[in-house]
Amino acid sequence: SGLQAHTGNYGRIYNYNMSVPDPIVTDNPTNAAMARGTTPNPTSQPIIRTISFNETHTDTQSTATEHGITAGAEVTVKSEAGLIFAKVGFEVKVSFQYNYTTTNTYTTETSRSWTDSLQITVPPGYVTEHTFIVQTGPYSKNVVLEADIAGHGWFNYSAPGYTGTGIVNITQVLYDNKVPGVTPYPDNFYARFRGSGKLEGKMGLQSFVNLVERPLLGRAGQVREY
Asked: One Pfam family, short name please (predicted)?
């Protein structure tokens, strides 16, 4: 008696889908000072000045497959999801990619330009300090990796005085190999795979200019921030 698997294997993975079940980010954003400057006014008249900023900030992201499935060749799929940063009320589209067949971690860095320009009025006897700030939001989310599996394979079997060839469907192979995350369709020749991954990163959300007015050294007055 015995069982010998044939080399023929007619399986495929398709209908890939990736999603973030919980898109709400509750982490507190952080402020990064990108540029600083001052405008003093030692005169007796207000000074009107236009200040401009053009700075580059780098967004970082990493994706890791925690539970994937092997398809005989590496399969990398790209997608995007909308993350809602609850503390600032922003929804941001995030693009990402996963390898369904390995536990590869993809790390990406993307540089973006942030610009701003505004007109300020510096009162007599004051100095205005201006700081250009980019607000960044960290995120760490679970990702669901899904795909359909279809196909079959042939095998040879033998017993005393008898040999034959049979067919085995894809769900039987997956069950025999105890592959987790697989749900068979009614005909048993198709199955739905559900895996998992991790999406982490930090990205710029918005920019603004922080202004502080202070009396010049030796002058009287109040400190104002706006």
From this structure: ETX_MTX2
| Exposed/middle/buried for residue 172 (C-beta within 10 Å: 0-12, 13-18, 19+) | middle
| Residue 223 belongs to a domain | no
pTM (predicted TM-score): 0.78
Long-range contacts of 41-46 (CB under 8 A, 24+ apart): 41/122, 41/123, 41/124, 41/125, 41/126, 41/127, 41/128, 41/216, 42/125, 42/216, 43/124, 44/124, 45/124, 46/121, 46/122, 46/123, 46/124
Kindly state whether residue 168 falls inside one of the protein's structural domains. yes
Q: How far apart are CA 140 and CA 80, in angstroms?
A: 15
Pair 52, 117: CB distance under 8 Å: yes
> How many independent structural domains does the chain possess?
1
The CATH number linked to 188 is 2.170.15.10
Please report the pLDDT score of residue 3 as a whole number: 40
Q: Residue 31: give the domain boundaries.
A: 2-213
Q: Residue 221: inside a domain, yes or no?
A: no
The predicted model gives 82-97 an average pLDDT of 92
CA distance 131 to 133: 6
